[in-house]
Amino acid sequence: MRCLVIVKASKASEAGVMPSPELIAAMGKFNEELMKAGVLLAAEGLHPTSKGKRVRFSGDKRMVIDGPFAETKELIAGFWLWQVKSMAEAVEWLKRCPNPHAEECEVEIRPIFEAEDFGYELKPLLEDQEKRIHDHLAARKP
Fold it and tell me: Each residue of 122-137: pLDDT tens digit?
């Protein structure tokens, strides 16, 4: 199963405070372990929401909202994309992760929908779409 591991923002990350060199090194080591185990698919940190935008959808209308956004605890500072056998395996990996912030924080694990989750009838169509997208993205990599 693939899962998205979501690092929630903190006041410091939203203020643009960069992690310490020690935390960067510890996260790098952790990411290497994930990579060697075949778990890591992607890992990225995000700029604060002051550099972001949101688009609000209301029927056929679109409204652009400039950051920063309120409610730091609801914001995302970074993420991993993992390939694991189960949610239990993802939890075990996450328990080994260095604390992403210099304060108490939460990291959320969410399973990603797979083609078979949408029913047998749609599986071939969705698998074909996913393959085309995957092939296109793989061809773009430098």
Answer: 777 777 888 888 888 8
* Domain identity same for 35 and 82: yes
Looking from the CA of 81 toward its CB, the CA atoms found within 13 Å total 6
Q: Which of 137, 5, 8, 7 is nearest to 84 (CA)?
A: 5
Q: What angle do CA 36, 39, 42 make, to 5 degrees?
A: 100
pTM: 0.83
What's the domain count of the chain?
2
- The residue segments making up the domain with residue 119 are 115-142
Matching residue, tokens 């949610």: 87
Distance, in Å, from the CA atom of 33 to the CA atom of 31, rounded to the nearest integer, reads: 5
Per DSSP, the three-state class of 89 is helix
